[in-house]
Amino acid sequence: MNRLRLVALLPLFALLGGCNFVVLSPAGDVAAQQRYLVIISTALMLLIIVPVMALTILFAWRYRNSNRQARYEPDWDHSTGLELVIWAAPLLIIICLGALTWMGTHLLDPYRPLDRLAAGRSVPEAAKPLEVEVVALDWKWLFIYPEQGIATVNELAAPVDRPIHFRITASSVMNSFYIPALAGQIYAMPAMQTRLHAVINAPGRYQGFSANYSGAGFSGMRFAFLGLSDGDFDGWVAKAKAAGATLDRATYLQLERPSENEPVRRYSGFDPKLFDAILNLCVEPGKMCMSEMMAVDAKGGLGLAGIANTLPLAYDKYTRRGAVFGAEPGYVASVCTIEEAQALTTRAPAASARRQTAPIRGAGLPLPELSPRRPASLSLLLGSARPSNS
């Protein structure tokens, strides 16, 4: 019978062979340090969990109903030694976990530049980080290399043992930028910028994806991360420059629309201000940027003239994401002075639509236009809300 149980468990062990333990065996130094945090934290918690589970089984067996030799003490209610063990052990573990968390939070802060490439290897003073701008789109990833002058979709590459500095944002909804072999996940949010410093220590092809659900195409929002030697990275950049396509703002607005399972794309050039425009929600030509509106507010704002500016700065999540419903996108194209606004009002045609000044009655519908042909019963219902023209 025992052999049959062992044979039945063999398929389960076979399934474990397909597991990817990249989190416990990463290729980047930041992820490796995070691995030790996971292992040490788990071990500290097991110091309590394992004895408690073992004692639960021991007590259930020892004090079972059929064991007549178990000592019966119905009046026992206190043990100083047992109380010390019960309270001291968890307290010490909590102190250790707190200290470990505090050190890890500061040493592995994603905004903190790297001070080492690997254990025992500090970052050279002359080392220049590789700058990469990351944009989470629906449902794909855009990577911009300002120094190399290229951009890619769903493919990211970096030289081995060179610090990488990521600037991360999103176009519409929140996502999470995550390469398990490189470092921990960092959120990508529209109109906000997050940062990540990391390094890859071994060449290879690794997987990156979004770790935050963002819609129908979320499952296909994956990309390849390539750890390359310096020579191979230069060749990869040259291949991207040979693509010939340019990522200007019009091309980006088409790329931004929702699509699923996009293939790898490469662009040999891009608008140098594209990332800042994405970050400030002003990719469309002529649209006021969020940073410009903030500068206006910092100087005291525009009073009543600036009330309409808050809504246009919001992301149009309906039309921009391809929906057929929702209001048309609108934005502030320019700001005029009070004198210019008054001049425009003066030049406006005087024969505008007739305006109702009477209060709204009933179901919230506007009052009908008054005419001599109006039925007398309607006049009685309206009462003296408005004098008749007849």
UniProtKB/TrEMBL annotation:
The chain crosses the membrane at residues 37-61, 82-103. The keyword Transmembrane helix applies. Its main location: membrane. It is a multi-pass membrane protein. GO terms for cellular component: plasma membrane. Residues 346-373 are annotated as: Disordered. Keywords: Cell membrane, Electron transport, Lipoprotein, Membrane, Oxidoreductase, Palmitate, Respiratory chain, Signal, Transmembrane, Transmembrane helix, Transport. Residues 15-112 form the Cytochrome oxidase subunit II transmembrane region profile domain. PROSITE patterns: COX2_CUA, COX2_TM, PROKAR_LIPOPROTEIN. Residues 364-373 have a biased composition (Low complexity). GO terms for molecular function: copper ion binding; cytochrome bo3 ubiquinol oxidase activity; cytochrome-c oxidase activity; oxidoreductase activity, acting on diphenols and related substances as donors, oxygen as acceptor. Residues 127-239 form the Cytochrome oxidase subunit II copper A binding domain. One of its GO terms (biological process) is ATP synthesis coupled electron transport. Belongs to the cytochrome c oxidase subunit 2 family. This is Ubiquinol oxidase polypeptide II. The gene is cyoA.
